[in-house]
Specification:
Shape: elongated
Order of helices and strands: HEHEEEEHH
Number of helices: 4
Helix content: 55-70%
Strand order of the largest sheet: 1-5-4-3-2
């Protein structure tokens, strides 16, 4: 079920700090043939929801099978030349979850900067800076907490990432397409 390409992707990502794993490979087929294969699978099966928008294909689980950390696979299929295409893949959480996490990260960064300025101002004025310094350090703890929550979510969604990748490969192989 798992292939060497996926293992190479996972191994290359194991030593990096990556919340949204990416991959890229070339295939010997036109991007129109690839996109048509995904369009065909959209109606032939019900295990995954396949959505296409121009050269972008989104593969996700049906609503009833999704959990909070369910990933989705975003593919961008670009024409390389007349007979080859490049597939760019990005595993990520539901865009709503990703947006919420980014908002929280920016909020924490803003509070970190604001409390740091407050602490510096109080320190230069000779006033007590214990509370703003505590808030500054607390924002660092909150940021690490958010980061590790994201890593735990990614770990919980990893089996689903394998399923999405296997489904993508299955579609490519059914069209007689193999990576170069």
């Amino acid at each position: 079920m798992f292939n060497l390409d996926l293992l190479c992707i996972i191994m290359s990502l194991s030593n990096e700090i990556v919340l949204r794993p990416r991959f890229k490979f070339d295939v010997e087929a036109t991007n129109e043939k690839l996109l048509a294969g995904f369009d065909e699978q959209k109606v032939k099966q019900s295990d995954f929801v396949v959505t296409r928008l121009d050269d972008h294909v989104f593969i996700r689980f049906p609503k009833q099978e999704q959990h909070y950390w369910s990933p989705q696979l975003h593919l961008e299929i670009n024409e390389k030349d007349k007979t080859h295409a490049t597939i760019y893949g990005l595993f990520g959480p539901n865009p709503t979850i990703w947006t919420m996490f980014m908002f929280l990260h920016f909020l924490v960064a803003g509070l970190f900067i604001a409390s740091g300025i407050w602490a510096y101002t109080n320190m230069t004025l000779g006033e007590s800076y214990a509370i703003p310094l505590f808030l500054t350090l607390f924002m660092v703890v909150v940021w690490f907490t958010l980061y590790f929550i994201g890593r735990m979510g990614k770990a919980k969604g990893k089996p689903d990432m394998y399923k999405l990748h296997a489904f993508m490969r299955e579609i490519l192989h059914s069209e007689g397409i193999h990576s170069i």
